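Model it.
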Amino acid sequence: MNHDSNISREEWNRFVLQHSGSFLQSWEWGEFQEKFGRRVFRLADFEQNWTAQCVEMKMPIINRRYWYAPKGPIFANCKSPIANREFNEFIDKISEVAQKEGVMFFRIGPEWEIANREALIAYKNQLETLGFRQLHYDIEPSQTLILNLTRSEDELLAQMHEKWRYNIRLAQKKGVQIKIIKNTDADFEKYFKEFYKLVNQGTSVRKEIKHHKKEYYCGQLEIPDGDLKISLFIAEYENQVIAANIVAIFGKRATYLHGATSDEHREVMAPHLMQWEQIRYVKNQGCNEYDFWGIVNEHTLDKRGKSWEGFTRFKKGFGGREINYVGYWDWALDKRWYYLYRIIQKIRR
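Modeled.
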């Protein structure tokens, strides 16, 4: 098994990209986490065909640490290798390293797709038999909507809800302008301030949604373009920014990561046009998938309030296929402290 010092950026990203891994498992995302004071551990066994990038998190109340692998681990041989020896080898190796680091538990959230409720029950039984406990909420969304971008623009428009096509045309007719902003642009700081103002004073207040600190969003946009590329999209109407989104591209998959809208000028339907322009842009960049990054459905553990029902309706209007993943699971290394942690988490939520 390899540790960070024995792995190169190129070797790591090549494996993750070859096996359709998430941008959260990219080398660049790990560097971004390190800039915010978090330790990152990259574990890999290229002979056994698996990798896992783990971020170390601190729990202030009980002053303990845990690792989590966002959208990981990644396995080469199949999407759901629970019954395979590679998964058991992964558990053994990460347990060994995490134990040495004094970690209380490690958390995984692999992109293992579940086809139906019976498949989910089978996953749960297998993981619980191995000693995992399911987290009672999601860190990243385990239910999402993915749009197939291999179709033509006309086909993509045709599969949308007719009202969404109308709203796109309306926004164009009203003169809504969509701009793509990179952190190297002269006006980046100006537009980033507008984005965060919408996040802080608009969407989060109106929808009662928690959001990250300003520096966290800015740090994402300041990641230098490599295998991972992150851009800011803004919608302007009458020289006023009324909507803004952050979109990540990693390999052939684009992800609509963050979004914010103003209460003003909602009648011009800027979010519809901006999504469409984002889809067109990433398609032209060579992406074949557009991940809307989170919906709610019957599998969602944490419904997150009425606002997520609205987000889900909005995203579904563009078409796409619903995907359900297996969720987030914990493996306790210190069972007594982990039991206490679970109690605290349930109280806090």
